[in-house]
Amino acid sequence: MLNSLESLEIRSNHLTSIPQIGVNEIRSLKSLSLYDNLISIVENNAFLSYHSRTKLTKLDLSANNMSVIFPQGLLGLEVLEQLSLDKNRLRMIPEDALVLVPTLEQLSLGVNEIETIGVKALQLPNLKSLSLEVNKIKSIPPDALQTVPNLAYLYLAGNLFTSIESTMFFYVNRLKVLSMSNNHELRIVTANAFQYVPNLLRLELSDCAISVIEPTAFHKIPKFK
Predict the structure, then answer these.
(1) Which end of the chain is more exposed for a tag (fewer CB within 10 A), N or C?
(2) What PANTHER family does the record tag this protein with (predicted)?
(3) Domain containing 190: what range?
(4) Domain check: are 139 and 224 in the same one?
């Protein structure tokens, strides 16, 4: 057994479930990529038998045509910091599964079919980077980001926003980068839209349909570049 193995990539194969026999015996695994397989469902306890589950910090399950992550699908991943779920068929943020990995710092959910962000969807106090690019999100409820106070990077490009409201960012005043490009329904940037993100350094609004920028839209961003 390769007990010294720290990184394993099984990309672009035909796996239909999280691999068990063999992989679960590796003791020092820190990074696992199962990108581009056929894993449509992550069953409960999928990683619980992994000997390296207390060492695994990076997991890539992107491009698997995945539609379901069961509530205990990520159980046991006690130190997971990066989780990639891009290019799947998720219709909602798997909040019951994510609550079991509060150590997450980076979460990627781009190119899915997500329409809403529930108030309890992101109970991730250590999260610093969140990607929800290319989904079907029209707005963010005021309390949806309350549970990610350390968020610094937020990627919302390629969604269905029609306006930018300041209340979306009320709880993420540490935000440094906000990407909202390619929101083709986005027509207005409202007054004081960014008043709650005074640390914003980079804002991306390219390829939208913006026709109105209200006079005080960019006020209260002293660090804006």
Answers:
(1) C
(2) KEKKON 5, ISOFORM A, SYNAPTIC ADHESION-LIKE MOLECULE SALM
(3) 115-225
(4) yes
Half-sphere exposure (Cβ direction) of 213: Cα atoms closer than 13 Å: 8
Total domains in the fold of the chain: 2
Residue 224's alpha-carbon distances to 7, 93, 192, 219, in angstroms, are: 38, 31, 14, 10
Instruction: Provide the whole-model pTM.
Output: 0.95
pLDDT in tens, 38-71: 999 999 999 999 999 999 999 999 999 999 999 9
CA 110 to mean position of chain CA atoms:
7
Report the CATH number at residue 212. Answer: 3.80.10.10
Query: Could you give the percent of the chain with pLDDT greater than 70?
Result: 97
In a domain, 57, yes or no: yes
Q: Please report, for residues 40, 78, 104, 129, 171, the alpha-carbon distance to residue 81 in angstroms, rounded to integers and kept in the order given.
A: 22, 9, 4, 11, 22
